[in-house]
Each structure stands twice: as C-alpha cells, then as structure tokens.
Amino acid sequence: MKQEMEKRKGGRIEESDEEKWVHDASVDYKGRIPLRASTGVWKASLFVLAIEFSERIAHFGISSNLIMYLTEVMHEDLKTATNNANLWKGATTLLPMIGGFLGDAYTGRFRMVVFSSLVYFKGLSLLTMSQFIPNLKPCNNDICHQPRKVHEVVFFLALYCIALGTGGFKPCLESFGGDQFDGDNLEERKKKMSFFNWWTFTFSIALLLATTVVVYVQDFVSWGVAYLILAMFMALTIIAFYVGIPFYRYRMRPNANPFIPILQVLIASIRKRNLSCPSNPALLCEVPMSENSQGRLLNHTSRLRFLDKAAIVEEKYIEKKAGPWRLATVTRVEETKLILNVVPIWLTSLMIGVCIAQGSTLFVKQAAAMNLKISDNFKIPPASMASLSAFGTIISVPIYDRIIVPILRKVRGNERGISILGRIGIGLIFLVILMVVAALVENMRLRMPGHETMSVMWLIPQYLILGIGNSFYLIALQEYFYDEVPDSMRSVGMALYLSVIGIGFFLSSFLIIIVDHVTGKNGKGWIAKDVNSSRLDKFYWMLAVISALNLCLFLFLAKRFTYKTARRKATEIDCSNCDGVDTVA
C-alpha cells in the first residue's frame, strides 16, 4: 500500500512537472524548453495580434480604395482597374505559398516574419514617397488626365513590394501565433480555438478603421497623408513585436524540406504496390513513442489505403535497415494523406475568394454610382461601405465565441461546438444568400428612373451578410489549414488558406474577362466601361448559381472527411528497421 501511495505521489509530481514545462517541440528565446507560466498563450499572442492589426490596416487602407485610385488618379477604365486591383490582391495571397514554404523549411517562422515586415515597411515608404517627392507625384497639378510614367512605375513597384512582404509575413505570423498554444494541453487547446476567432476579430477592427478613417483621409485630406500614417503605425508595431521576444515560444529551426517526406511516402508506396496491406494496422511501421523526439505521432486512418503500403515492413528488410525511400512510418503516411485530403476542400473553397473579391471591387463601384449623402453636410466615401462587413464580423465573432460555442459544447459534448467543416458549410450558405441579395439590389438600382439615384443604404444588407459570412468561413478555413496539415507545414497551411482568397481574386478577374468576351459580342456586355451601362445583376446571379452548386459539392466531401488525430500513448510496435526514417513533426 505504501509503495502504491508513493507511486501515485510520484505520478502527481511527474504530472505537475509536465504541466510546468511545454513539451511540444518548441523552445524559448534562449533555446531551452519553455516554462508554461512565462511564455506563450495570450501574453505572447497580444504582440502577434498587434503587428497583425497594423499590417491589416495598411493592407485594407490600400486595397479597399485601390480601385478608386486607379480610376480617379491613374485614369484607368473600370475593366482595367478591376483587373489590376484583383491581380495585386491575388499576388498578396498567392506569394504566401512561397513565404510559407521558406519559413517552414529553411528560415523558421519568426525570422521570416521579421524579414518580411521590413520588406513590407519598405513598400509603404515607397508608396508614401510617390505622393510627396515632386518628381514622383502623379502630376504637377492637382488634376491631370494622364499620370507620369515614373509615378506609375514607383506606385506599382511599391504595391508589389508590399505584396512580397505579405508573402512571408502573413502565413508565418499566423502560424507563429498558433504556436504559442500547446495543442496537447486541454486549456491551451481551447484558447487556441479562441485565438483564431480573435485573430479574425482583430482583422475586422482593422478593416473597419481602414475603410472609415483611412479612406476618409484618402478622399478628403490626401493620399500621401494616409500612406504616411500607415507607414508610421507599421514601424511602431514592428518595434513592439521585437519587445515580445522573451515571451514567445519558437519552433526548433527546420533543417529539411517538408515536402521530401511526402515524396518519400509516394515513392515507397509505388515501389510496394504489389503488396497487400495487413488487416491489422498495428503491424505497420511506426517509431515508438518513447523514442520519438520530434513531434506528435498520428493515428492510422482507413482512407487512401494504397499509401499504407509505404509503411509495410518487407521480409527482406527484417534483418537490415530500409531507407526512407523504401519504408515510411505510419505518421509520415498519415501526413501525406492529410495533404492529399486538403486538395478537394481547397478547391471547393475557391468560390469564397471569388465572392469576397466583389466586396472590394464591383460593390465599391456600385456604391460610387449611388446617392452617397447621409445628410446635407456629409457624404460617405464609396470604399467606406466595406466597414459594414467589418461591423458584421465584429458583432458575430464575440457572439459565436462567448455564447454559441459554450452552449454547443455543453449540448453536443464537442470542444469545438461546431466542426470546422460544418462552420465552413454555414459560411458557404451565407455566400449564396449574399450573391442573391446583391443581384436583387443591383436590379432595383438599374430599374430606377433616370432622374433618380438609389440610396447607398440599400447596400447595407449585402455588406452585413458578407461580414457575418466572414466570421464563419474565414475563421474555419484558418483553423482547418492550421490543424489539418502536418505540424511541420503549418505556415504552408496558412499560405493555402490565403491562396483561397488570392486565387479567388484571379478567378474573379478571369470570369470578368470571359463574361465580357461572351456577352460583349452583341454590344450589351455585362461588364461595360461603367456600372450604369453594365448588367452586374446578371453577373451576380451567375455567381449565386455557381456558389450553390459548389456548396452541394462541399457538403458531399465534408460528409466523408476524417479529421487528424494524434497519439498520446505508446501503443505502437517497435520495428528496428524504422530507425532510418525520421518522423516529421
């Protein structure tokens, strides 16, 4: 009895020690195992949210009114301006694929954030100089019909410098923020779920300020003053981010390309294509928990069984060690399955980006063609209507996080409340409703008598629906691409999330070109030189139909999806010929 009590006591001491330190392959700024009480969680995440806040204000301050700058200052027509705006926004969400990969494979997430933030600041500085330095200004006078070529070059150089900075900044910062929470600790895991909600809340506050305060300064003070404010604010938060260095948890510096293990699994499974998978998955090769020092081990799943062949131990290699291109562990196989299973979800999420693109391009031009007067003395800037979508998100995120989730946790016994894909599905329903409402409002606007102008207040419903939808699909997509990819590829996962938006902007531009080509043959194109001679209502109806079909396909895939689960107990078999295969965290 005495021995048993001592054992239990020792167990409590050991458990207490486990709670004191963070054992998730992260280190503190001195390279030691992090102390749970003094690192990570909200004390570190607040610095991350602060620099994200300033970056998003800068991004939305530029992007929300970019189409107005291109048409009013650069004097581009609607089609050219819309395509240029979409191409830049697409670049800011596709370049993260490269930045995320480099951060995961070579530099580490923190170093990539620091480097990219400086590149971003350089772009903001160039943008500011293009408005204040006389030789770089659009023209000598306040009004001109054609800007200087040098201004066009510097302006677009600044924009794409910002896009390049975003490429490393966005995926690595968000995954770095997620790294501040220990996924194996129940309380920290719940806080991490809230982190993505408050990340989007911060994003929405930034959008609200950018589309009201920054846009107002751009329209009624000057573009240069607005860009100067954004550059100074970004500089201050970069300094603040450095202050948080002692509080962060850092992932150990990567030393390999995370795509190599995936390629090894594919090659190994092809080599052993003629073998039969064992009925008992415990016979497949896996590193014992006691010998695993690089991250979590994943549970076996029954999907994509062909890949399981990569983990079959062949008889001829029982006595000798097989190389990683011949034998993989179950964890590596499951990580490969994760990447392959991401593809269909990613494809069905692209319509989210297409519909979001309308909110900062065609919706803005709609607003510009409507009655913008709120009172006799105040006229709302067209781009400021996007603040309503931010308002919708700001209201819905706290309600979801503080009211709906706790209730659903108790009712359903699920720590998330609603599954990740379930939340995306609800967001996709909002997208269908959004495009239907947008089409109806635009049709009403076009039917107004020639001497009357429709009030911009009619756009409130579609912007609010867009904002509420953001609180579902955007947050859920972030969680999905962080949680459902290999732990070593989380920055790449965040890049995949951003690429949904980026490729959505490119697809939007592509659709505009195709629709203009097809409908313009009879002289009545849906996308004309201005919104009054266009038929945007028909374009929106087309997007509503495509979104509805996409929703059906998504629901079909979601019903058959299996989520990633990690092992917490040593239930794996020990096979000596696994020694040549490193586990990917």
UniProtKB/TrEMBL annotation:
Subcellular location: Membrane
Record InterPro entries: MFS_trans_sf (IPR036259), POT_fam (IPR000109)
GO cellular component: membrane
Domain of life: Eukaryota
Topology in the lipid bilayer: Multi-pass membrane protein
Any one GO molecular function term: transmembrane transporter activity
Membrane-spanning parts: 112-133, 153-173, 194-217, 223-245, 338-360, 380-400, 420-440, 460-482, 494-515, 539-558
Key words of the record: Membrane, Transmembrane, Transmembrane helix
Main location (coarse class): membrane
Family in the record: Belongs to the major facilitator superfamily. Proton-dependent oligopeptide transporter (POT/PTR) (TC 2.A.17) family.
Matching PANTHER family: OLIGOPEPTIDE TRANSPORTER-RELATED
Annotated protein name in UniProt: Protein NRT1/ PTR FAMILY 5.6 isoform A
Species this protein is from: Glycine soja
